[in-house]
Amino acid sequence: MSVQAFEDxxxxxxxxxxxxxxxxxxxxxxxxxxxxxxxxxxxQFIKYASEHSSPNDGDKQKLLQPxxxxxxxxxxxREKNRGSQYFNHLSAISESIPALGWVAVSxxxxxxxxxxxxxxxFYTNRVLKEWKEKDKTHVEWxxxxxxxxTDLQAYVKQYHTTGLVWAKGGAKPAxxxxxxxxxxxxxxxxxxxxxxxxxxxxxxxLFAEINRGADITKGLKKVSADMQxxxxxxxxxxxxxxxxxxxxxxxxxxKPVVEKPPVFARDxxxxxxxxxxxxxxxxxxxxxxxxxxxxFKCINSTITVKNKxxxxxxxxxxxxxxxxxxxxxxxxxxxxxxxQMQVLGKVPTITxxxxxxxxxxxxxxxxxxxxxxxxxxEVNVMVPKADGDYSEYPIPEQFKTxxxxxxxxxxxxxxxx
Length: 417
Prior knowledge:
- The chain is of the alpha/beta class.
- It has two domains: 2-216 and 225-237, Serine Threonine Protein Phosphatase 5, Tetratricopeptide repeat (Alpha Horseshoe), CATH 1.25.40; 263-400, Pectate Lyase C-like, CATH 2.160.20.70.
- The chain has eight helices and 16 strands.
- The protein has helices at residues 2-24, 26-51, 57-79, 87-96, 109-131, 136-159, 205-216, 233-237, and strands at residues 263-267, 270-274, 282-284, 292-296, 302-309, 311-315, 321-327, 330-334, 337-343, 349-353, 356-361, 370-374, 377-384, 390-394, 399-404, 407-412.
- It has a seven-stranded mixed beta sheet, with no helix packed on it. The chain has a seven-stranded mixed beta sheet with strand order 3-5-7-9-11-13-14, with no helix packed on it.
- Strand 15 and strand 16 form a beta hairpin.
- The longest helix is centred in the N-terminal third of the chain and has 26 residues, at 26-51.
- The protein starts with a helix and ends in a 5-residue tail after the last strand.
Protein backbone atom coordinates (compact mmCIF):
# COMPACT_ATOMS: atom_id res chain seq x y z
CA MET A 1 0.00 0.00 0.00
CA SER A 2 2.89 2.34 0.75
CA VAL A 3 4.39 1.79 -2.70
CA GLN A 4 1.05 2.16 -4.46
CA ALA A 5 0.28 5.39 -2.62
CA PHE A 6 3.63 6.88 -3.67
CA GLU A 7 2.98 5.83 -7.27
CA ASP A 8 -0.35 7.67 -7.03
CA UNK A 9 1.55 10.84 -6.08
CA UNK A 10 3.73 10.47 -9.18
CA UNK A 11 0.86 9.72 -11.54
CA UNK A 12 -1.41 12.36 -10.01
CA UNK A 13 -0.15 15.75 -8.73
CA UNK A 14 3.43 15.26 -9.97
CA UNK A 15 2.21 14.49 -13.50
CA UNK A 16 0.10 17.68 -13.44
CA UNK A 17 3.11 19.67 -12.23
CA UNK A 18 5.30 18.30 -15.04
CA UNK A 19 2.68 19.15 -17.66
CA UNK A 20 2.33 22.73 -16.37
CA UNK A 21 6.13 23.06 -16.37
CA UNK A 22 6.30 21.92 -20.00
CA UNK A 23 3.67 24.51 -20.86
CA UNK A 24 5.85 27.24 -19.31
CA UNK A 25 8.91 25.78 -21.01
CA UNK A 26 12.57 26.76 -20.77
CA UNK A 27 14.46 26.17 -17.53
CA UNK A 28 11.21 25.37 -15.71
CA UNK A 29 10.54 22.41 -17.99
CA UNK A 30 14.13 21.18 -17.67
CA UNK A 31 13.97 21.35 -13.89
CA UNK A 32 10.60 19.58 -13.76
CA UNK A 33 12.09 16.65 -15.68
CA UNK A 34 14.78 16.37 -13.00
CA UNK A 35 12.10 16.54 -10.30
CA UNK A 36 10.26 13.68 -11.99
CA UNK A 37 13.48 11.65 -12.05
CA UNK A 38 14.08 12.37 -8.35
CA UNK A 39 10.61 11.09 -7.43
CA UNK A 40 11.15 8.00 -9.59
CA UNK A 41 14.46 7.31 -7.85
CA UNK A 42 12.78 7.64 -4.47
CA UNK A 43 9.99 5.30 -5.60
CA GLN A 44 12.60 2.62 -6.34
CA PHE A 45 14.12 3.18 -2.89
CA ILE A 46 10.70 2.78 -1.22
CA LYS A 47 10.07 -0.39 -3.24
CA TYR A 48 13.42 -1.75 -2.13
CA ALA A 49 12.60 -0.96 1.52
CA SER A 50 9.27 -2.75 1.21
CA GLU A 51 11.08 -5.97 0.27
CA HIS A 52 14.25 -5.84 2.37
CA SER A 53 15.24 -5.38 5.98
CA SER A 54 17.08 -2.21 6.96
CA PRO A 55 20.71 -2.21 5.71
CA ASN A 56 23.76 -0.76 7.42
CA ASP A 57 24.59 2.93 6.97
CA GLY A 58 27.11 2.32 4.20
CA ASP A 59 24.68 0.36 2.06
CA LYS A 60 21.92 2.84 2.82
CA GLN A 61 24.06 5.68 1.45
CA LYS A 62 24.52 3.76 -1.80
CA LEU A 63 20.78 3.20 -2.04
CA LEU A 64 20.14 6.92 -1.51
CA GLN A 65 22.68 7.96 -4.14
CA PRO A 66 20.30 8.11 -7.16
CA UNK A 67 17.85 10.38 -5.33
CA UNK A 68 20.51 12.63 -3.82
CA UNK A 69 22.22 13.03 -7.20
CA UNK A 70 19.00 14.27 -8.78
CA UNK A 71 18.44 16.70 -5.91
CA UNK A 72 21.92 18.12 -6.48
CA UNK A 73 21.25 18.46 -10.22
CA UNK A 74 18.06 20.39 -9.45
CA UNK A 75 19.92 22.76 -7.14
CA UNK A 76 22.84 23.14 -9.56
CA UNK A 77 20.45 24.08 -12.36
CA ARG A 78 19.16 26.94 -10.24
CA GLU A 79 22.66 28.20 -9.39
CA LYS A 80 23.68 28.16 -13.06
CA ASN A 81 20.63 30.18 -14.14
CA ARG A 82 20.53 33.10 -11.73
CA GLY A 83 19.88 35.41 -14.65
CA SER A 84 16.83 33.44 -15.81
CA GLN A 85 13.47 35.18 -16.04
CA TYR A 86 12.16 32.13 -14.15
CA PHE A 87 14.66 32.37 -11.29
CA ASN A 88 11.85 32.44 -8.70
CA HIS A 89 10.41 29.24 -10.19
CA LEU A 90 13.78 27.51 -10.07
CA SER A 91 14.39 28.72 -6.52
CA ALA A 92 11.00 27.51 -5.30
CA ILE A 93 11.84 23.96 -6.35
CA SER A 94 15.50 24.11 -5.36
CA GLU A 95 14.68 25.28 -1.83
CA SER A 96 11.96 22.70 -1.20
CA ILE A 97 13.12 19.58 -3.10
CA PRO A 98 15.15 18.46 -0.02
CA ALA A 99 11.73 17.30 1.24
CA LEU A 100 12.59 14.01 -0.49
CA GLY A 101 15.20 13.54 2.22
CA TRP A 102 12.45 12.42 4.63
CA VAL A 103 13.47 8.81 3.91
CA ALA A 104 16.56 9.36 6.08
CA VAL A 105 14.79 11.24 8.88
CA SER A 106 13.39 9.77 12.10
CA UNK A 107 11.47 9.74 14.33
CA UNK A 108 9.26 12.43 12.75
CA UNK A 109 9.79 12.72 8.97
CA UNK A 110 6.45 14.41 8.18
CA UNK A 111 7.39 17.74 9.88
CA UNK A 112 10.63 17.67 7.90
CA UNK A 113 8.62 17.63 4.65
CA UNK A 114 6.49 20.53 5.90
CA UNK A 115 9.55 22.59 6.80
CA UNK A 116 10.98 22.12 3.32
CA UNK A 117 7.63 23.09 1.79
CA UNK A 118 7.47 26.24 3.94
CA UNK A 119 10.98 27.24 2.85
CA UNK A 120 10.05 27.00 -0.82
CA UNK A 121 6.84 28.98 -0.37
CA PHE A 122 8.83 32.21 -0.02
CA TYR A 123 9.55 31.86 -3.74
CA THR A 124 6.21 30.38 -4.82
CA ASN A 125 4.57 33.45 -3.24
CA ARG A 126 6.79 35.63 -5.40
CA VAL A 127 5.73 33.65 -8.48
CA LEU A 128 2.08 34.17 -7.53
CA LYS A 129 2.61 37.89 -7.02
CA GLU A 130 4.51 38.35 -10.28
CA TRP A 131 2.27 36.28 -12.58
CA LYS A 132 -1.25 36.49 -11.13
CA GLU A 133 -2.20 39.26 -13.57
CA LYS A 134 -0.08 38.04 -16.51
CA ASP A 135 -0.42 34.27 -16.91
CA LYS A 136 -2.60 31.95 -14.82
CA THR A 137 -0.48 28.96 -15.87
CA HIS A 138 2.28 30.14 -13.53
CA VAL A 139 -0.23 30.60 -10.71
CA GLU A 140 -1.50 27.06 -11.17
CA TRP A 141 2.09 25.81 -11.40
CA UNK A 142 2.99 27.31 -8.03
CA UNK A 143 -0.14 26.03 -6.30
CA UNK A 144 0.29 22.55 -7.76
CA UNK A 145 3.85 22.28 -6.41
CA UNK A 146 2.84 23.38 -2.91
CA UNK A 147 -0.05 20.91 -2.97
CA UNK A 148 2.24 18.11 -4.17
CA UNK A 149 4.50 18.55 -1.14
CA THR A 150 1.45 18.83 1.11
CA ASP A 151 0.25 15.49 -0.27
CA LEU A 152 3.75 14.06 0.25
CA GLN A 153 3.62 15.16 3.88
CA ALA A 154 0.25 13.44 4.34
CA TYR A 155 1.63 10.30 2.68
CA VAL A 156 4.65 10.20 5.01
CA LYS A 157 2.47 10.81 8.05
CA GLN A 158 0.13 7.94 7.12
CA TYR A 159 2.58 5.25 5.96
CA HIS A 160 5.92 6.18 7.58
CA THR A 161 4.93 7.99 10.76
CA THR A 162 8.16 7.43 12.70
CA GLY A 163 10.51 6.88 9.77
CA LEU A 164 10.82 4.84 6.59
CA VAL A 165 9.30 1.39 7.14
CA TRP A 166 11.54 -1.51 6.15
CA ALA A 167 10.33 -5.09 5.65
CA LYS A 168 10.86 -6.93 8.95
CA GLY A 169 11.04 -10.38 7.38
CA GLY A 170 12.38 -9.22 4.04
CA ALA A 171 15.40 -10.39 2.10
CA LYS A 172 18.86 -9.56 3.35
CA PRO A 173 20.02 -6.26 1.74
CA ALA A 174 22.46 -6.79 -1.07
CA UNK A 175 23.90 -3.30 -0.75
CA UNK A 176 23.41 -2.47 -4.44
CA UNK A 177 21.15 0.21 -5.89
CA UNK A 178 17.46 -0.49 -6.51
CA UNK A 179 16.50 -2.00 -9.86
CA UNK A 180 15.70 0.33 -12.78
CA UNK A 181 12.12 1.59 -13.18
CA UNK A 182 9.68 -0.91 -14.69
CA UNK A 183 8.82 -0.51 -18.34
CA UNK A 184 5.36 0.83 -17.50
CA UNK A 185 6.83 4.09 -16.20
CA UNK A 186 7.61 6.98 -18.62
CA UNK A 187 11.11 6.73 -20.15
CA UNK A 188 13.45 9.44 -18.96
CA UNK A 189 14.28 10.42 -22.56
CA UNK A 190 10.69 11.56 -23.06
CA UNK A 191 11.07 14.11 -20.28
CA UNK A 192 13.85 16.11 -22.00
CA UNK A 193 16.20 15.77 -19.06
CA UNK A 194 19.22 18.05 -19.25
CA UNK A 195 22.65 16.38 -19.26
CA UNK A 196 23.88 15.61 -15.77
CA UNK A 197 26.22 18.15 -14.25
CA UNK A 198 29.68 16.53 -14.08
CA UNK A 199 30.16 18.04 -10.62
CA UNK A 200 26.85 16.74 -9.29
CA UNK A 201 28.36 13.71 -7.59
CA UNK A 202 30.80 15.99 -5.80
CA UNK A 203 28.00 18.14 -4.37
CA UNK A 204 26.08 15.52 -2.42
CA UNK A 205 25.46 17.89 0.49
CA LEU A 206 21.94 16.91 1.43
CA PHE A 207 22.16 13.18 1.82
CA ALA A 208 25.79 13.16 2.90
CA GLU A 209 24.81 15.30 5.87
CA ILE A 210 21.62 13.35 6.56
CA ASN A 211 23.35 10.00 6.54
CA ARG A 212 26.37 11.23 8.44
CA GLY A 213 24.14 12.57 11.19
CA ALA A 214 21.97 9.50 11.57
CA ASP A 215 24.18 7.82 14.16
CA ILE A 216 25.49 11.03 15.70
CA THR A 217 22.02 12.20 16.72
CA LYS A 218 20.80 8.73 17.67
CA GLY A 219 19.46 8.78 21.21
CA LEU A 220 19.29 12.57 21.49
CA LYS A 221 15.93 14.00 22.44
CA LYS A 222 16.29 17.46 20.96
CA VAL A 223 18.48 19.42 18.57
CA SER A 224 19.47 22.79 20.00
CA ALA A 225 18.60 25.99 18.12
CA ASP A 226 22.20 26.80 17.24
CA MET A 227 22.46 23.52 15.32
CA GLN A 228 19.41 24.12 13.13
CA UNK A 229 20.30 25.44 9.69
CA UNK A 230 16.95 27.17 9.15
CA UNK A 231 17.70 29.36 12.20
CA UNK A 232 21.35 29.90 11.26
CA UNK A 233 21.65 30.99 7.60
CA UNK A 234 25.40 31.33 7.96
CA UNK A 235 25.67 27.55 8.32
CA UNK A 236 24.27 27.21 4.78
CA UNK A 237 26.02 30.13 3.17
CA UNK A 238 29.58 29.85 4.46
CA UNK A 239 29.77 26.66 6.47
CA UNK A 240 32.28 23.91 5.80
CA UNK A 241 31.78 21.75 2.73
CA UNK A 242 30.07 18.40 3.42
CA UNK A 243 31.89 15.13 3.01
CA UNK A 244 31.92 13.76 -0.53
CA UNK A 245 30.34 10.34 -0.96
CA UNK A 246 30.43 8.12 -4.01
CA UNK A 247 32.66 10.24 -6.23
CA UNK A 248 33.75 8.65 -9.48
CA UNK A 249 37.43 8.76 -8.52
CA UNK A 250 36.84 6.96 -5.24
CA UNK A 251 38.33 9.84 -3.23
CA UNK A 252 36.43 11.15 -0.22
CA UNK A 253 38.27 14.49 -0.03
CA UNK A 254 36.18 17.52 -1.04
CA LYS A 255 37.27 19.70 -3.91
CA PRO A 256 39.14 22.87 -2.94
CA VAL A 257 36.96 25.95 -2.87
CA VAL A 258 37.65 28.10 -5.91
CA GLU A 259 37.03 31.79 -5.34
CA LYS A 260 34.87 33.12 -8.14
CA PRO A 261 35.86 36.34 -9.91
CA PRO A 262 33.87 39.52 -9.23
CA VAL A 263 31.11 40.38 -11.69
CA PHE A 264 29.67 43.77 -12.65
CA ALA A 265 27.70 43.37 -15.85
CA ARG A 266 24.43 44.15 -17.56
CA ASP A 267 22.42 41.31 -19.07
CA UNK A 268 19.46 42.82 -20.89
CA UNK A 269 17.18 44.29 -18.24
CA UNK A 270 19.17 42.80 -15.34
CA UNK A 271 22.30 44.25 -13.75
CA UNK A 272 24.44 41.53 -12.13
CA UNK A 273 26.81 42.42 -9.28
CA UNK A 274 28.42 39.31 -7.80
CA UNK A 275 31.38 38.29 -5.62
CA UNK A 276 32.55 41.84 -4.99
CA UNK A 277 34.83 42.28 -1.94
CA UNK A 278 35.90 45.52 -0.24
CA UNK A 279 34.60 47.59 -3.13
CA UNK A 280 32.81 50.73 -1.95
CA UNK A 281 32.60 52.54 -5.30
CA UNK A 282 30.16 50.38 -7.29
CA UNK A 283 27.74 52.61 -9.22
CA UNK A 284 24.87 51.54 -11.45
CA UNK A 285 24.33 54.49 -13.78
CA UNK A 286 22.08 54.64 -16.82
CA UNK A 287 19.58 52.01 -15.62
CA UNK A 288 16.01 52.24 -16.90
CA UNK A 289 12.69 51.96 -15.10
CA UNK A 290 12.14 48.31 -16.12
CA UNK A 291 15.63 47.22 -15.00
CA UNK A 292 16.48 44.96 -12.05
CA UNK A 293 19.67 45.01 -9.97
CA UNK A 294 20.70 41.62 -8.55
CA UNK A 295 23.51 41.63 -5.94
CA PHE A 296 24.94 38.25 -4.93
CA LYS A 297 27.61 37.24 -2.38
CA CYS A 298 29.17 40.66 -2.01
CA ILE A 299 31.24 41.37 1.11
CA ASN A 300 32.07 44.75 2.65
CA SER A 301 30.94 46.60 -0.48
CA THR A 302 28.71 49.57 -1.27
CA ILE A 303 26.46 49.83 -4.32
CA THR A 304 24.83 53.06 -5.48
CA VAL A 305 21.95 52.87 -7.95
CA LYS A 306 21.05 56.04 -9.84
CA ASN A 307 17.72 56.70 -11.56
CA LYS A 308 14.38 54.99 -10.85
CA UNK A 309 14.40 51.25 -11.57
CA UNK A 310 12.05 48.30 -11.07
CA UNK A 311 13.57 46.40 -8.13
CA UNK A 312 16.71 45.45 -6.21
CA UNK A 313 17.62 42.03 -4.76
CA UNK A 314 20.52 41.56 -2.33
CA UNK A 315 21.23 37.83 -1.89
CA UNK A 316 23.77 36.20 0.48
CA UNK A 317 25.69 39.42 1.12
CA UNK A 318 27.65 40.44 4.23
CA UNK A 319 28.55 43.85 5.63
CA UNK A 320 27.37 45.56 2.45
CA UNK A 321 25.21 48.60 1.69
CA UNK A 322 22.85 49.68 -1.07
CA UNK A 323 21.83 53.30 -1.77
CA UNK A 324 19.21 53.99 -4.43
CA UNK A 325 16.87 56.71 -5.69
CA UNK A 326 13.44 55.11 -6.21
CA UNK A 327 11.95 51.71 -7.03
CA UNK A 328 8.78 50.72 -8.86
CA UNK A 329 8.45 47.40 -7.02
CA UNK A 330 10.58 46.33 -4.04
CA UNK A 331 13.94 45.99 -2.33
CA UNK A 332 14.62 42.44 -1.12
CA UNK A 333 17.22 40.98 1.23
CA UNK A 334 17.74 37.20 1.26
CA UNK A 335 20.24 35.26 3.41
CA UNK A 336 22.14 38.44 4.26
CA UNK A 337 24.13 39.47 7.31
CA UNK A 338 24.85 43.00 8.57
CA UNK A 339 23.55 44.94 5.57
CA GLN A 340 22.19 48.45 5.14
CA MET A 341 19.92 50.19 2.66
CA GLN A 342 19.02 53.81 2.12
CA VAL A 343 16.27 55.07 -0.16
CA LEU A 344 16.50 58.68 -1.31
CA GLY A 345 13.13 58.69 -3.05
CA LYS A 346 10.30 56.16 -2.82
CA VAL A 347 10.14 52.38 -2.35
CA PRO A 348 6.73 50.61 -2.10
CA THR A 349 7.89 47.37 -0.43
CA ILE A 350 10.92 46.11 1.49
CA THR A 351 11.30 42.40 2.31
CA UNK A 352 13.86 40.57 4.45
CA UNK A 353 14.05 36.77 4.46
CA UNK A 354 16.57 34.79 6.55
CA UNK A 355 18.51 37.97 7.17
CA UNK A 356 20.33 38.84 10.39
CA UNK A 357 21.15 42.50 10.85
CA UNK A 358 19.53 44.96 8.43
CA UNK A 359 19.45 48.74 8.84
CA UNK A 360 16.72 50.37 6.73
CA UNK A 361 17.03 54.14 6.23
CA UNK A 362 13.83 55.66 4.86
CA UNK A 363 13.18 59.03 3.23
CA UNK A 364 10.24 61.33 3.82
CA UNK A 365 8.69 60.02 0.60
CA UNK A 366 8.86 56.41 1.78
CA UNK A 367 7.09 56.62 5.12
CA UNK A 368 4.19 54.61 3.67
CA UNK A 369 6.38 51.69 2.59
CA UNK A 370 5.43 48.11 3.56
CA UNK A 371 8.10 46.05 5.32
CA UNK A 372 7.76 42.25 5.33
CA UNK A 373 10.17 40.08 7.35
CA UNK A 374 10.50 36.30 7.60
CA UNK A 375 12.98 34.32 9.74
CA UNK A 376 15.01 37.51 10.23
CA UNK A 377 16.52 39.24 13.26
CA GLU A 378 18.01 42.63 14.18
CA VAL A 379 16.05 44.48 11.50
CA ASN A 380 15.85 48.19 12.37
CA VAL A 381 13.95 50.94 10.57
CA MET A 382 15.40 54.45 10.63
CA VAL A 383 12.66 57.08 10.20
CA PRO A 384 13.76 60.66 9.35
CA LYS A 385 12.90 63.52 11.72
CA ALA A 386 12.35 67.19 10.92
CA ASP A 387 15.83 68.16 12.13
CA GLY A 388 17.48 65.72 9.72
CA ASP A 389 18.24 63.09 12.34
CA TYR A 390 16.64 59.63 12.48
CA SER A 391 14.42 57.78 14.95
CA GLU A 392 15.27 54.07 15.20
CA TYR A 393 12.54 51.43 15.44
CA PRO A 394 13.33 47.70 15.72
CA ILE A 395 11.13 45.18 13.89
CA PRO A 396 9.58 42.80 16.50
CA GLU A 397 11.18 39.36 16.76
CA GLN A 398 9.32 37.85 19.70
CA PHE A 399 5.67 36.84 19.75
CA LYS A 400 3.37 35.17 22.22
CA THR A 401 0.60 32.86 21.04
CA UNK A 402 -2.35 31.70 23.12
CA UNK A 403 -5.28 29.48 22.27
CA UNK A 404 -8.72 31.01 22.55
CA UNK A 405 -12.27 30.04 21.64
CA UNK A 406 -11.75 31.25 18.05
CA UNK A 407 -8.32 29.70 17.53
CA UNK A 408 -4.85 31.16 17.98
CA UNK A 409 -4.19 34.67 19.19
CA UNK A 410 -0.71 36.10 18.60
CA UNK A 411 0.68 39.33 20.05
CA UNK A 412 4.06 41.04 20.03
CA UNK A 413 6.21 40.54 23.12
CA UNK A 414 8.15 43.68 23.97
CA UNK A 415 11.78 43.11 25.00
CA UNK A 416 12.53 44.43 28.49
CA UNK A 417 15.62 44.85 30.62
